[in-house]
Structure formats: structure tokens, C-alpha cells
Give the backbone structure.
Amino acid sequence: MAAPDLRSLFRSGPARTAAIIVVLVVAMLLVRGATKDDDTGSASGTAQPLAPAQGAGDRPVDGDGQVTIGSTVIVPHPADDGGDLRSYRGQQAEGQQVLVLSVPADEGFWVGSGPLDRIWVQMSGPGESGFVVQSGQHVSFTGTVVEHDRGFADRVGVNMLEGAARLTSEGAHLEVPRSTVVLAG
């Protein structure tokens, strides 16, 4: 029995669709493997992992830090919350030595422990910040949970590869005055 001509698989019908899907999945897995250390890329360059600095917050935090609202820890996300932050709208959030995962926007960045456990931080206030936040740094801050619409990711410059779908599904982000951001490392 002769081997099938691979070109015929891509010509038409369900076999073509299946072949395209397989090619796309393999490509996505290869890209994901190549970018595993820096989940979404970074406008500031290559990720530079740093050890968490001591004394950046009021209390010691192990690992990748945490973001809390009162006594509720929202990063790391509770396993059953689905990532929707709208129920916390208007409440004050505090980040303590939280890992910066990526910086895809000029004044915004992802913090957390990974692609399924992250929250968007949007710096606010007049002008540009006088510092540069980079992937791999740990940050501490105080901000407010702000609900946003479906167009928010596009307005702040976050595309699909940088987590636009996640940002949209969370329904809210942290609005953080630049003056409260403390870089640790």
C-alpha cells in the first residue's frame, strides 16, 4: 500500500481542517515551550529573574508574593474563583512582593505566578512613571479594583498573545497610583 500524498490532505474537506488544526496546535506548543520563562513577552526586553527583596513590604511573603483585598488573597487566585474580579469593584488591594510576569504595555503589567494566576496592574497618575518595571522583578503597591469593559485590553495595548482574553475575562484590574509602587530587585 502506497503512502498517502501529504499535499492531498491540505486540498479540501475535513482532512484539510484536521491537518490545519494539528499544525496550529504543534506550532502553539512549540511557541509556548520557547516562551515558558516569560509567559507573554515583555516590552522591556528579556526576562531577568531576581530573588525577592526583603523589606519591600510590611510583612514577609514567601515565593511570588500575594495580592490581598482585606484578608482575602486574590493572587494567588483561589482555585474556584474563575478569575472574575468584578465582585471586588471599588475595594482597596495591596500587593506585597508580587512577581512581575510581563510588561506588555507602557504603564501596565501582569503580576502573579503564571498565565492562569495573574492580575493586571495599571499605573495611574499624571505623566509617565519615573521608573521602569521589568519582568522578573517583585513589586509592592496599593491600589483599587476597577471594573473595565471589553475594550480595555485594546485601549491599554494588550493584544491576544499578551493576555487580552484573560484581561477581558477578569472584568476588572488594579488601578495603582505610581507613588505607591515599590520595586524590589
